[in-house]
Design a protein that fits this description.
about 210 residues; alpha/beta; TIM Barrel; nine-stranded mixed beta sheet; 6 helices; 9 strands; about 25% helix; about 25% strand; binds iron/sulfur cluster
């Protein structure tokens, strides 16, 4: 059984899967407390659901993409066989994780979105470095930028670990903290290979699209 905060059908707002109709499975609990967290409601609330029932509910929505998000999905080991079962059923599966827990046992067919925490998140030391050795080329790195300091830090992290050469790197302005225009200018001025990512769902979100 997995403790699930919510399941809903919406438009993917992030990663290179952006824009795709997607079923989101939000797991309960997180080991971090980021300053800008917009899903605090996932820390404790949820209900226990079996893998079989989760597969049925995903199927009912009829979308080809499934995204495991949180909270921190990797806190519950049952998420690993669930992702494998979803891949076996032909879904394109993505996993949003902070990278603070090991990704070693994640099915290689899953696109992992590693949301590396920057200094202004308050959780900059949470990334598990061994994850850099256990990921496939499908993996994407995301950095939520809250300040110039965060941008400097992210640039250093990416260059130090050769991320620009081997992976998609996404810079996302912290919503209502950093202007997308400022971040766009910085990306151009710095000649960085990162891609600008706006959180599309925050522009289109509607209560009509959600439902557990
Ligand atoms: S990792 Fe995600 S869910 Fe957890 S505190 Fe940070 S933003 Fe919130």
């Amino acid at each position: 059984m997995l403790k699930i905060n919510e399941i809903f059908h919406s438009i993917q707002g992030e990663s290179t899967y952006v824009g795709n109709p997607t079923v989101f499975i939000r797991t309960t609990a997180c080991n971090l407390r980021c300053t800008y967290c917009d899903t605090k409601y996932s820390y404790y609330e949820g209900q226990h659901i079996s893998q079989e029932d989760l597969l049925k509910r995903v199927h009912q929505h009829g979308a080809p993409y499934v995204c495991l998000t949180g909270g921190e999905p990797l806190l519950q080991k049952e998420v690993l066989p669930l992702m494998t079962a979803l891949c076996d059923h032909g879904y394109r599966v993505s996993l949003e994780t902070s990278g603070s827990k090991s990704c070693r046992e994640v099915d290689p067919r899953v696109k992992i979105i590693l949301d590396v925490k920057t200094p202004d998140s308050g959780a900059a030391d949470s990334f598990l470095m061994e994850n850099l050795e256990n990921i496939s080329a499908l993996t994407e790195f995301k950095f939520v930028i809250c300040s110039e300091r965060d941008l400097d830090w992210s640039e250093n992290f990416c260059r130090q670990h050769d991320l620009f050469k081997n992976f998609v790197v996404l810079y996302s302005p912290s919503f209502d903290v950093i202007e997308p225009q400022w971040l766009s200018e910085q990306i151009l001025q710095r000649k960085t290979a990162a891609r600008l990512q706006l959180q599309l769902h925050k522009y289109i979100w509607s209560p009509r699209l959600r439902g557990v």
